[in-house]
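Weekly modeling sync, notes
Attendees: S.R. (lead), two postdocs, one rotation student

Agenda item 3: backlog of single-chain predictions. S.R. asked that every request posted to the team notebook include the full sequence so nobody has to chase files. The rotation student volunteered to paste the first one in as an example of the format we agreed on. Action items at the bottom.

Example entry:
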Amino acid sequence: MFVSGFVSVIGRPNVGKSTLINSFLGQKLLIVSDKPQTTRNRIHAILTTEEAQVIFLDTPGIHKPRHRLGNYMVKSALGALKEVELIIFMVEATSPPGPGDRYIAALLQEIDTPVFLVINKMDLAPAQFEKEWLPLYLQQGKFAKHFPVSALQGKNLNPLLREIIKILPPGPQYYPPEMQTDRPEEFLAAEMIREKVLLQTREEIPHSTAVEIDSMELREDRDILDVRAVIYVERDSQKGIIIGKNGAMLKQIGTEARLELENLLGNPIFLDLWVKVKKDWRRKDSYLRQLGYE
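Predicted structure, as returned to the notebook:
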């Protein structure tokens, strides 16, 4: 009997939601960084086995929004709680429950969908976790099951996946077995470039940037994919930081992004990066729509 269904992965920013899904898929499909709010869009990530198709919904971290983009992200995350077969509520073993965890747990009390509590980063858990902090997490709600895991190291993921599949109803293959996401290559390419900006920059710069793919075309005479992309920032000073002295920062971002894209897309890449200013783009509906956030 083949089973299938949708599984929403929610939690505070930076608890490891994308890392967990990447580990299940066996490849890096979703971007990750140590910056909160790395994920901005809800993304379907598809895992197909001989017995099941699991469609994971990777969602932005639930947080208190400070601008229109933040509102969109939280709305997207909360919308993913509806019409799914299972919710994975991710927390981290490196700290006791905080206000953000309690807020999400309270939201889940109003939902009838089964919830698995997944405690990530067990490889970093302090000695007091099991006796002091785990009971506090379990008190936050009525969870069908709980799993201590390390998404980064792949520890205890097989038991979690087995229980996810057990809870899914009989159903069809919604997507072809070779398909791993519902997003087009242009979206994935833009995200990979944005990840490199996140990794290379600090303070407000990571959150002030967006990436748009202008064009992506395979050359007629050679097996090379030409990708032209624009990195948007909100201030002229931020543009200077992204470009760097003598273009060094932009070159570093481009080199790292090109290698990632070649691995993802399976083609040699020629990456042409530009940096442009869209003043206060995170606060303007027209810019958010242009960049695919509304």
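Discussion: group reviewed the output briefly. DSSP finds nine helices and nine strands in the chain.
Action items: rotation student to repeat for the remaining queue; S.R. to check formatting next week.
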